[in-house]
Amino acid sequence: MTLTLKAASKAFAAVILAPVAIAGFALFLAVWFVMTITFVGPLVQYCCNQRDRKLLDRSRLCERVPDLQFIRIPHGNNCAGFDLAVRFTRSTTSTTLPPVCIPNGLGASMTTISQLHEELVKRGHTVLSYDRLGVGLSDRNTTGVSPTADDVVKDMEFVLSSVLPPTTKWLVVGPSMGSIVGQYFVATYPNRVVAFLNMDGFPYPFCRRRAKFVLAGLIYKAYAAIIWTGVMRPFISMGIQSWRSRLQSAAFSIDVVRAETNQANFFRNLAHEMITMIDLADKVNAAWGSQSCLELSPADLHTLAHTKPSAVGDVRDDGEWVPIDDSAITDQLIPNYGTIEPAETAQAIASLLARQPQSQLAKTWQTLHVDVMSGRNFDYAGASMFIDDEMKDWYAAEHTIHALLAARGCRTVFPTKAHSDMFAMVQCIADHVDKLSGAIDV
Fold first, then answer.
1. 358-370, pLDDT tens digit by residue?
2. How many domains does the chain have?
3. Which of 133, 146, 257, 341: disulfide with 79, CB 3.0–4.6 Å?
4. Would you state the pLDDT for residue 15?
5. pTM here?
6. Integer Cα distance of 415 and 375 in angstroms
């Protein structure tokens, strides 16, 4: 009944808001047309771009951020001959904790996760964050070709080996798309990772939704095509400003983040990253083999999707973790909240592994320490385009198997947090990294 009322209220809101949305879009087109034909918009964009170039000047950035460097990728990768921006900060207090690598989410740069980078450094971790080709401070992708999944992990391996010996084992923090990058890195370089934090990672089965992601890529290309008119800048700048508390850090001001985002390259590269993400999803799906969520029987998928997490809670504005009585919020988590005990699911996973050939990735995963942070609030703009009930089940099933298949695993659910909210929980994420690191004997 509750779900029916929610659906009805959403439908009613859509009917009421549709005329407002149409009127708003018409107003946007009118403003765009006037600003373009009068050259006011292009002139403003040109002047702002001159300031942006100064903010993004590499020599100035390196003076301000001493641990920022640019590493040239060698011949053999799609981005051979291009420089990737790398921020590598050595711990000055600990030599026993594994170094942390953060492969970012879709289109996200080191500037957007700089707060997390700096918090982990304060806690004694050695931390590396970097920008993939075309992203953030790295060179633009001028090849016209989206990097493949193999390109991405080769680049990641080269960057890691450039700052620490190639025998070093890393703790990988995978936010959103970064979780798929991390999984494929584990599959390709199984001896390079000792622990994995899945930070509300998108499930790799969304390769089944490739048409929608390709469509999103085309929309981003359209944004890139009109950004020279200046009409996008006020909206982008207001959006960035509203996230000031999440994005500004000691190393990178909000102006630097705004300058990155107001470039045509930002949107053009988002389209490339969509294609790269689909390839990563395909490769990770293949790497999991019989243990892939797409290969599970309906019964096994149901069991994994409805398994109780290790903990349910929320993070207050002051960063403090607060447990939640899961019985009070079950309605928010249906259809992918658990009524099945983890011990029962562990038996189901053992049975699954016994009756099917184990993939190499599944074998490697059983040697890792893994934590999973799952945001379960899908009531936000854009979610309905990609995340239906089947996708929610894949989300929950993948996050469950990540935790229960590991040598030591834990899954924490945040029922009130949307996907974008998860990355603002810097203290909580750092707590999870601390917990993982503390359990590892380096």
1. 899 999 999 999 9
2. 2
3. 133
4. 56
5. 0.90
6. 6
Q: Note whether 271 and 134 are same-domain residues.
A: yes
Q: Are residues 13 and 61 in the same domain?
A: no
Give CA–CA dist 263/259, Å, rounded. Answer: 7
Q: Domain containing 23: what range?
A: 1-38
Are residues 8 and 145 located together in one domain of the fold?
Answer: no
Query: Does 408 lie in the same domain as 349?
Result: yes
Same domain, 8 and 111: no
User: What is the per-residue pLDDT across 34-62, written as a single tens digit (0 to 9) for each?
Assistant: 777 888 888 888 999 999 999 999 999 99
Position 78 confidence tier, pLDDT thresholds 50, 70, 90: low
Could you tell me if 332 and 415 are in contact, meaning their C-beta atoms sit under 8 angstroms apart? yes
Residues 6+ apart with CB under 8 A from 191: 169
Query: Residue 284 corresponds to which tokens in the numbers above?
Result: 């990770």
DSSP code per residue over 33-57: HHHHHTTHHHHHHHHHHHHHHHHT-
Query: Is residue 86 one of the residues assigned to a domain?
Result: yes
91 and 17 housed in the same domain: no
Q: Which CATH number does the domain housing residue 302 bear? A: 3.40.50.1820
Residue 161 has pLDDT above 50, yes or no: yes
pLDDT per position as a tens digit, 359-399: 999 999 999 999 999 888 777 666 666 777 788 888 888 99
SS3 101: strand
Are residues 33 and 158 located together in one domain of the fold?
no
Element (H, E) at 104: none
The phi and psi torsions of 321 (rounded to 5 degrees) equal -75, 135
Q: Which residue in 329, 313, 326, 435 sits closest to 374, CA to CA?
A: 313
